[in-house]
Amino acid sequence: MLSLRAHAWISGALLAALIGIPIAGNIAEAAGVPAPSGAWRLPFQIFYLSLFLAFALSAVPVIVLSVLRAQKDNAAAAPLIRNQARIVWVLWALMLLGAAIALPAMIRDGFFAASPKS
Fold first, then answer.
1. Which of 1, 16, 78, 117 places its Cα 20 to 30 Å from the Cα of 86?
2. What are the structural domain ranges in the chain?
3. What is the tens place of the pLDDT at every residue in 34-83?
4. What is the pLDDT of residue 116?
5. Distances in Å between the alpha carbon of 78 and those of 1, 21, 53?
């Protein structure tokens, strides 16, 4: 497992991308750049959803390592500190399982449709 600092940099970079991409799009739109055609909409939606999922997954080690580092003097937290990598892997597995369950429902409800269902 990477260090807390490395995980924080990764998570921060993904968050900056999540915030920066819409800002750049708004600036481009205000400058008169036409919106992408319908053919580009679906790949961008998939990319942005993947970016969001990557950020969510990258935040888990930051949170787990931060909390357990704060508990380093607590003897009761010693087993958790020894198994912090397992904790991260279990949380990642649960999040990915939830995403795998949610994806068919998202498709069925029109999340990736050209115009969302009302």
1. 16
2. 4-108
3. 887 778 888 999 999 999 999 999 999 999 999 999 999 999 999 999 99
4. 55
5. 18, 41, 30
Q: Would you say 77 and 71 are in contact if contact means Cβ atoms under 8 Å apart? A: yes
Helices (H), the chain: 4-30, 38-70, 78-82, 84-108
The reply to whether the predicted model has a pTM over 0.85 is yes
Integer-rounded Cα Rg, in Å, for the chain is 19
pLDDT at position 113 is 81
The token pair at 83 is 């198994």
Side chain identity at residue 54, one-letter code: A
CA 100 to chain centre: 14
Q: Residue 39: what pLDDT?
A: 83
CA distance 100 to 66: 28
Residue 115: pLDDT above 70? no
